What does this fold into?
Amino acid sequence: MAAADEEPRYEALIGGVSSEIWRVDLRRGQFCVKRALPRLRVEREWIAPIERNHYEFAWLRVASGIVPTAVPKLVGQDQEQHLFVMEYLPPDSYPVWKAELRHGHADPAFAAQVGAALGQIHAATARRPDIAMQFPTDSFFYSLRLEPYLEATASRHPDLAPALLRLLDTTAKSKHVLVHGDVSPKNILAGPAGPVFLDAECAWYGDPAFDLAFCLNHLLLKCLWTPSAAPAFLRCFDALREAYMGHVTWESPEDLEQRTAALLPGLLLARVDGKSPVEYLGAPDQDRVRKIARPMIAASPRRLETIQREWAKELRIG
It folds into this structure.
């Protein structure tokens, strides 16, 4: 990348728990280098295979052929060093969606773009054994998602363990599309041409309900972080769900919604009692999450609007 007579300028970027990320400035432009860490920077021990970096690069490559504007341009990878290089997207033009939500900038139109792009990627990779063969990552997904979220939460709530472990089993066995695995506002940039997805370290050929529930979960939690924008966050919830569902052709939308609605309360509880709790909720708000999530896990709702309605009732919205 660098010319023979050039001294690259490196700057470590902050914010991630699972990788080392640098911005590299060259005469030809700015680039981003990402290398996976074997131990994630969280309080509870969390070891993950560094080979996940290869599959993140592969997810970005596949997605770029479906929605080119939804991922950074790729430059290359070094599999031996477990790193890859992509274009650097400046924060002035590509703010992180999480930061926008923190400041109450809740735009249902942008949320709909997120849902539509995710739906397009899922639809284009559905029933594709050739793509499934590129992502033999069941064990990675278990160690990065199913164990730290659902299994770890089950250990903290023994009375709900059978229900949570059923969710884990259902998710693990549902093989439909190429899943990103970390569709969180912190991994989505609000670019000029729409959302840009980052950090596909959990890429897996499996259950699209996980991606949809994972992102909707964050829109619910942000209601507690920025209460003044809570009604707008719930409108974003609706907009993202509706836009996504418009692309579901590989299975019955009702079946997918049922799996998503059953999983979502489990992920809510996991973000306060799993291995990766959100950093912005204090003890009172954590208790509110438990108050809502625990009975819903036991009841296993079939519709996402049921969850939204109960959440709005707890927050006294509407």
In short: The chain has a mean pLDDT of 90. The first helix runs from residue 52 to 64. The first strand starts at residue 9 and ends at 13. DSSP finds eleven helices and nine strands in the chain.
